[in-house]
């Protein structure tokens, strides 16, 4: 009967979306209930409102950085051409807003006090990535997506989705937070674009 056919369809729905194998990790993705959008910055809505009428990514980065220059004035400052990060050693490390030779620019995005790392928005003409900078020693790690820090502050998952333009990475990276740097555990491209993530346990 049609009722039995519909029941069979519902009972046979595949819940597993994808399985990825990367190094010694097996990642299984399944359908689940929706969850409230993750806010890795703590002020995502405010940032969104600041830039909601702006389409240009560079202009958005400048506006967010200007707002953050007051919130994090103990940690960074800017000149006309340069972003300057303050390290805990008393030294500074500089990044250009526009490096014409390498066609790249750097903008302040956040300071994660729980792991003592800065996050920079790294932009070029067509595409972007992110950079985490260790505040203790200035060690720089380019990551391919926004970082989601584990509840125990020992791991970072970076995810990014750029399916429409296709200029940047689509996929997932996993990092271990070491004493002085980040260790890449795996980087895996996907045919779909992960846009949000929620840690359910420490690691």
Structure description:
There is one protein chain. This protein is about 15% helix and about 40% strand. It is an alpha+beta fold and about 200 residues long. A 4-stranded antiparallel sheet has the order 6-7-8-9. It has a 4-stranded antiparallel sheet with strand order 10-11-12-13, with no helix packed on it. The chain has a 3-stranded antiparallel sheet with strand order 3-4-5, with no helix packed on it. Strand 8 and strand 9 (about 140-145) form a beta hairpin. The longest helix has 15 residues, at about 55-70. It is globular and about 45 Å long.
Fold topology:
Blueprint: H1 2-11, E1 16-22, E2 25-30, H2 44-51, H3 57-71, E3 76-78, E4 82-86, E5 92-96, E6 104-112, E7 117-124, E8 127-134, E9 140-143, E10 146-149, E11 155-160, E12 171-177, E13 182-189
Antiparallel strand pairs: 1-2, 3-4, 4-5, 6-7, 7-8, 8-9, 10-11, 11-12, 12-13
Task: Please give a handful of descriptors for the protein shown.
globular, 16% helix, 13 strands, 3 helices, 39% strand, alpha+beta, 4-stranded antiparallel β-sheet, 203 residues
Low-confidence stretches: 4-15
Oligomer designation:
single chain
Order of adjacent strands in the largest pleated sheet: 6-7-8-9
Q: Helix- and strand-based class?
A: alpha+beta
- How many strands, which pairing sense, and closed or not: the largest β-sheet? 4 strands, antiparallel
The helix/strand order is HEEHHEEEEEEEEEEE
Mean pLDDT: 86
Radius of gyration using CA atoms only: 20 Å
Percentage of helical residues? 10-25%
Strand content: 35-45%
Shape category: globular
How many H/I helices? 3
Cα-to-Cα separation, first versus last residue: 48 Å
Number of strands: 13
